[in-house]
From TrEMBL, chain B:
PROSITE patterns: TAT (PS51318). It holds the Pfam family Metallophos. It comes from the Bacteria. PANTHER family: METALLOPHOSPHOESTERASE, CALCINEURIN SUPERFAMILY (PTHR43143), SERINE_THREONINE-PROTEIN PHOSPHATASE CPPED1 (PTHR43143:SF1). This is Serine/threonine protein phosphatase. Residues 69-276 form the Calcineurin-like phosphoesterase domain.
Amino acid sequence: MTLRMKLLVVPCAALSFAGGVALATSPVTKPAPPVSEPLPKHVVPASKDGNLVLGLCDGETSLEVEGVKEGQKLTREQALRASSKLMADWRQKNPDALWDEVPGPALAQATPPNAKKSPAPAPQPNPGAKPASSDVRQGGVGAESGAKAVPQQQKAHLQTGHTYGAYSERDEQIWADSTQAFVKEGHRVFHDAEAVGGTVGVSCDMCHPDGANTHPETYPKYQVQLGRVALLRDMINWCIENPARGKPLADGDPRMRAMEAYIYAQRKGTKLEYGKH
Amino acid sequence: MGNKFRSIETKHYAEREAFFEGLKKLDRRAFLRVAGISAGIVAGMGKLTPQSFQLVNVAEAQGEKPKFSFAYISDTHLYENKLNDRFVRAILKAVDDVNALDPQPDFVLFGGDLAQLGQAGELKLGAQILKSVKAPIKMMVGEHDWFLDMGELWRDLFGAPNYSFDHKGVHFVVLNSIHEKDFWTERKLTPMERMKIVAGLDNGIQSRFEVGGEQRQWLQNDLAKVAKTTPLIVFSHSPLYKYYKPWNFWTDDADEVQAILKPYDKVTVIHGHTHQLLSNRIGNIQFHGMLSTAWPWPYAPEGLPALTVPMNRADPFSQFDGCGTGRMDVLESGLVDKVYNLWQRDPITVRSSYLASNGKQASPPKPKLPTY
C-alpha cells in the first residue's frame, strides 16, 4: 500500500489515475470496444494567478503550487513538498485507510528546507472531515460494486480505500470480461481475411491455427530476413502485407491492438524469452 | 497450362532429381566416377560445401531399388485465380515437379483439399490444371472440397470419393475420411457458413473427422477378397490416427479402421491434411503425411507421434518453403519409402526401415530449428 501510494502521488498533473476508477464503475453489460473510448481524465481547476495546478491520483483532489507558473518545471524540492501536501490531503480524506508508516528516504536525500517534517504525516484528527462513506469516493470502486462487503465476505482484515483497497468479485469479473472482449475481437480479426485488410482471401489462422507459431514471447528479436530487430507487430504487418496482401496497420490501429491481445492470450504461461530464435 | 510456368527452382530440382535417379542405376565403379565428377562440378562452381551433390546423398541413393513409384500433389487449397494467384502458382509448380520425374511415376495421387472453399470456380480450376499431369491421376477428397455442397460437384468432376484398385501386386484403397457429424442443421447454417467453419482448422464448432460406419463396412467388404499377405496402401485425407483433436489432426473412428487393417502384414497409410513432415507407426501400419503446396501447418502443441522427425521451421518470407510435393517408392517388400520433396530445401526420405525398426535405423536428418 505504502509503496503504491507513494508512486501514485506523482507530481504531474497530466497523469491521472482515474482510469482504474472509471473501469471499475462503468456498466458491465457493454464491454468497451478497444481504444474507441477516451480514457478518463482528471481535469484540474485552473489557477487564477496562472500557477501550476497538480492533481492527485484520486481524480478529485488538486493543489495549486504557489510561485510556479503553469508550464514551468518544479524543482525536486518543490515537487516533494507538493506531493507531501497532496498525500496529506488524501490521508485526511481517507482517515480509515490502513497505512504503513515508513521513513521517506527520498526526502532525506533531497534535504528540503522543511526536512524536519515527516514526509508522511500521521493522519491528523480532524473532526470536521467528512466520514469516508459520505461523498468521498471509497477507494475507486463504486458503491454498487459491493466493495465494502468484500472484507466481510472474505472474513479477513483487509486494507480498504482507493482503487485496489477492496474490490469485489464483480469488479474482477468486469476486468476479465473487458479483457476477454478485447481478445475475442482479436480472434475475429485474426480469422477474417477481409477484417485484416487482406485482398487474396488469406487470413492469419490459415497458417497459425490458435495463433500457433507466432511465438510472441520471443520478440523483440533480430529478424534475419528484415535485417533488423523486430517487434511482434512488425511481423504481424509483414504477414498482412505479404501473404495476405493488405496494407500494414498503424501501431494504434484497433485491429493491430486486438490481434496482439489475441496472440499474447494464446501464449499464457509461456516463459518470456525475448531475442530467442 | 502447367507447362507454361517453370521456375528456376523447378528446373534446378528437376535436374537434381534426374541426377539422383541416374545414380540408382550405377555400379560401384561408375559410382566413384560420378562422385568424382560431382565433386569437380561443385568445386568448379566455387561452392565451399557441395549442396545438391553431396557424396553422402550419393551413397544414400544406393538403397533398395523400388519396385515402382508414385508421386503426389496435395492440399492445394485453390482460390480462383482472380482472387489469389499465389496458390495457383504453387499447384502449377507441383505439376511441373511430377511431370519432370524421370522415370515417370506410375500414377499421381491427389491428396485432397483441391479447393479452399469448395466453390465451383475453385474445383474446376483445379481439375483443369491437373489435366496437365502426364501420369494418370488418382483423386482423393478433402474437407475443403466437400462441405459447401457435400461433395456434389466433386463427385461430378472426379467420381466416387472412395474406391480401390490393384497395381503391381499392391492393393490400394482410397477413403473419404473427412465425414463429420451434422453440426449445421440445428444451427441453421448456410452451406457457405458450414464450409467456412470446416475450413477453419481451429474452429471448434465443427465435428471431428470420421470414416463412418457405412464406409468402414465397405472397406471390410473390399478387403475380404484380399490375401493377408498382399501389401495394402491406404489413401486417406485425415491422418487415420489420433494426433491433435482441436485441429482435426484426428480421425474419430481411427481405432475401428485400424482394426480392419490389422490382419494384413504390410499396411501403409498415406494421408494429407496436416501439411507437414509427419511419420508414425501403429503396430503393422506405417503412416506418412503429405506436404501441401499452399502453406505448411505448424506442429500441434501436443500429440506428435514419437517417430516423427519434424521438419525445420518454415521461413515465412519464402512462399514455397515448407511446402512441396513428394514421391512414394514402393519397395519389393510392399512397404513404402516416402520422399518429401520440400521446395527450396534438400529432399528428406523417411524409409519404411526407419519406421519398422521403431526409429533405430535409417533415421531422417534432424531439424535445426523446430516450430514453436
